[in-house]
Amino acid sequence: MAPIDLSTAYLGLRLANPFIAGASPLADNLDTVRRLEDAGCAAIVLHSLFEEQISQEATGRIQHMDPLDRQFAKILSYYPEPSSYALSTEQYLEQLRRVKSAVSIPVMGSLNGTTAEAWLKFARLIQEAGADALELNMYAVVTDLDESSLAIERELRQIAENLKRDLTIPVAIKLSPFFTAFGNVARELDKLGADGLVLFNRFFQPDVDIRYLAVAPHLELSSSAELLLRLRWLAILRGRVRCSLAVTGGVATPNDGIKALLAGADVVQMVSAILRHGPSYFALMRDELRRWMEVSGFGALADVRGRLSLSNMERPSAFERAQYMRTLSDWSTWLGYEASIRAHEEDESKPPS
Ligand SMILES: Cc1cc2nc3c(=O)[nH]c(=O)nc-3n(C[C@H](O)[C@H](O)[C@H](O)COP(=O)(O)O)c2cc1C
Fold this sequence. Notes:
The chain is α/β, with parallel strands linked by helices.
């Protein structure tokens, strides 16, 4: 039997298989980095440097707020102390160089911010330090009721344009799904030359503590339930944008990885599953994909990728709407409601023992 080809292309880079380590502290330790590569992890994204950290180190200010101006004292106190970041900006570049020389798989830097301003120039330093690509995370919860979606999308396009102009390495953009017309946002970024889209940012959502009447920040690792939204958008975009597609969020098992590839992902980023099970989980992901392809009769990943996408569907919106309506009209079957009513009735009709 011909060997199975798991190789894939992402951002123009050739990868041995589609499973890569997403932006996280996983690359902060060189021993972990080597273990990731040994287990078959095909590329690594470093944790992000934040716009706020970069501008604070460069100018002493965050979002133009002067720390000597008392009106900003409270808001500035919410940000981490400069000393509490895992790495300073200089150390980040040094870590990137070290990771690059420790492994032979591609290594990507990551920036995290919201404005098309001077901090973006740091991208050049990441390129010069040897990154094979840059991932830009646009993480913003827009709370200003005067800010329109048009303005937000314009800023986003501006950032992508600036990065593409300044860099020669490929640029991937990690996005949230919370746009009125996400497909249009994706296509515009694709037209501007973004090399990849990473779907989706996972917002850290604070809870409410009813005992202390306080907002309670909390961080949970993801579960497979979060994958479904990503599968939908991978399937919608596959074949309709030129750039690469990566999934991030909710890939907890080998089957989740296979689903993402079938929907249309070029690569599958993983963080939570690796923090839970350790770097060796990459070997399981790869081996299970190979086994599944063998059993299903696929010889190459190219035959799997996007097999279940909507690219050949004439009107994907009508399909989505029809699926939604059918699911609601069959709700009792989906939820096992009738079966549970019958079980209750049978229980009640039994004579008491
Ligand atoms: C501890 C931790 C640190 C993270 N740090 C970053 C980061 O620096 N930059 C970033 O873009 N995403 C970061 N993420 C988000 C992950 O890259 C990823 O998008 C998210 O965890 C969803 O993927 P998962 O379901 O595989 O965990 C972090 C996630 C975790 C759990």
